[in-house]
Amino acid sequence: MKTGMLVAMVLAAAVNQSAMAQNAEKKDPNVLLAAEIAAQPNISYAADAIRQLRPKFLRYAERLRSPATGDDTKGPVLYVDECKECGGGLVELGRIKVSEIVEIKFVDPSKAMALYGDDHRNGAIFITTISRQAKP
Q1: What are the backbone dihedrals phi and psi of residue 125, each rounded to the nearest 5 degrees, phi first?
Q2: Which tens digits make up the pLDDT trace of 76-109?
Q3: What mean pLDDT do residues 53-74 have?
Q4: Which of 26, 31, 48 is nearest to 99 (CA)?
Q5: Would you tell me how many other CB atoms lie within 10 Å of the CB of residue 126?
Q6: 4/42 Cα distance (integer angstroms)
Q7: Which domains does the chain possess?
C-alpha cells in the first residue's frame, strides 16, 4: 500500500514538473524580457523594442489634436521602476536603453482601469530596469 502511494506521488511530481516546463516555454504576450530584446539586432531603446516586438502595447494610443501643442499622443501610462511617468510619459520610451531593461510588461486597458483608475484607460506599461532590480 505504501509502495502504491509512493508511485502515485512520483508520477504526480513528474506530471507537475512537465506542466511547469511547458508553461515556462510559453511566452506571455504581455511581457517582453531582456533576452528576447537582446536577440534582435538594431534595437537600441525601449521604444524600438516595443514597436518591433510588441506593437500591440501601443495600439491603444490615441492621436489627439491640440491647437497649442500640435499633435500629441495619449497612450498607456508608463511606469519606470514603479515610478509613474518618470521623465515624461511615452517620450521616455525613446530614452531607455535596452541594455538597462530587465522586463517590459503591458497591462491591458480594462485591467489597468480596474487596478489603477480611469487615467489608465489606454493601459499601462511597466518597465523594470537593472538599477531597480539591484535594489533590495
Answers
A1: -120, 125
A2: 999 999 888 775 677 888 899 999 999 999 999 9
A3: 65
A4: 48
A5: 18
A6: 57
A7: 28-134 (2.170.130.10)
Residue 80 grid coordinates: 519606470
DSSP character string of the chain: -HHHHHHHHHHHHHHHHHHHHHHHHSPPTTEEEHHHHHTSTT--BHHHHHHHH-GGGGTT-EEEEETTTEEEEE-SEEEETTEETTTSGGGGGGTSBGGGEEEEEEE-HHHHHHHH-GGGTT-EEEEEEHHHHH--
CA distance linking residue 116 with residue 135, whole number of Å: 24
Q: What is the C-alpha separation between 113 and 110, in angstroms, rounded?
A: 5
Instruction: Judge residue 22's burial from the number of C-beta atoms within 10 Å of its C-beta, 0-12 exposed, 13-18 middle, 19 or more buried.
Output: exposed
Q: Are 50 and 104 in contact (CB under 8 A)?
A: yes
- Residue located via cell numbers 510619459: 89
Indicate the pTM of the whole model.
0.71
Contact 52, 36 (CB under 8 A): no
